[in-house]
Structure prediction request, 475 residues.
Amino acid sequence: MTNFIIILLSAVFINNYVLSKFLGICPFLGVSKKLDSAAGMSLAVIFVMLMATAVTFPIQKYLLEPNGLEYLQTIVFILVIASLVQLVEIVLKKYIPSLHKSLGVYLPLITTNCAVLGVTILNIDAGYNFAEAMVNALGSGLGFFLAMVMFSGVRSTMETSDIPESFKGLPITLIAASITSLSFMGFGGIIENLFGGA
Amino acid sequence: MSEILTAVIPVVIIAVICGAILVIASKIMAVKEDERFPVIRECLPGANCGACGFAGCDGYAKALCENPDTPINLCIPGAENVARQLSELLGVEFADVAEQIAVVHCSGDCAHTQDKYIYQGIESCAAVKLMYGGKGVCTYGCLGLGDCAKACPHRAIFVKDNVAVVNPVDCVGCGVCTKTCPNGLISLVTDTKNVVVTCSNHDKGAVTRKLCFNGCIGCKKCERVCPEKAIKVIDNIAVIDYTKCPDCKDFGICAKNCTTGCIKISDLHGVHSINKE
Prediction:
């Protein structure tokens, strides 16, 4: 049990995909202008990360590894994740239109998101079993959610602040993102102290 | 050669399987969309202003598809043109749109009123309103920082001499600005020759006079001269009942007789009427 908590917490805070690993920067900068769109995007990311891990893990373990095809990992994962997201979109549109309406615009954006591919590949690299991989995927998604929601707050404050002309728009957003990511450095070493280096 | 095949074949197989699943899924779970929807949506201007009372153009198009009783003349920016297209598409009788235009009920420009302090904060009317009701001496008047101008999707409003001015040639009457003004100074009037009260000050006459030379002092002269009894001074400000104006026998008499000149004749022929002519 402690094992899962460690994986979850470290995925959310220490190895945060956006702020520590710098994956998924595109939606982080693109969709974080408003709180509701940031939350919608992050929920879609959590959902897709879990789905993608659940599908790619068996593919790696039972299809690629026994046949010595590990080097096809990246391309097969991209293929599978992309079609999975499309499938999910079709299913949602048919059966849960309300969810499709709120996640709909973000799902195609996530299709080729590096954070999603990163989670699935790093799960394999870390040597997790299936349950651990799912927990890690959930943690990574929650970490993405946290980063997005936090940053949308930062951006809403920037909207009303007096920014020098040359910094307006993307430059100041990048600077704010770097400072936010700097703050996450403070979480380093917290797990070792909490769980006694387990 | 075989090494290449061992790599290519599994990927191709997986791709074909994925593709097949997607094709089957999209066939089985296809959602039927009203085929009129994209056509109707195409007719609407796409400004998403909400003047029709629905949530954007998509909402109006959906309502038109689903409910045959939805009036076709609700799109004010699209005006006659859109209403005509819609009536053809839906087979409903044509009804003309009541074209409207935005009017700013304040004329307290730099020459007629003064500032009570120098403001150096965020460039927004909503912000300056929080500081003692605005930087001008009149707390009812235009705040002059152009929240309406920023909100206008057609760039028809600009701030001149500290007062927002509507450029009738660009205004389509969507009414977005009416919701953004913190003082509620902007309203929509019919897009024709009109008389407009260009003041919103509810103070007593003497107080208003001190604050702004253009203010309505509530003298009721317009009430007396109006042949249609369309003007009423309510809470120290003249209010015009526009439903009675079209029958006016002596158009513009109220403006000519206004003591302070705050009732003005505005030749508010907007973009729609210009197109018609």
Observations:
- Chain B is about 35% helix and 15% strand.
- Chain B touches chain A through 18 residues (CB under 8 Å).
- The beta strands of chain B are 100-104, 157-160, 163-166, 186-190, 193-197, 231-234, 237-240, 263-267.
- Chain B has two domains: 36-90, 100-276.
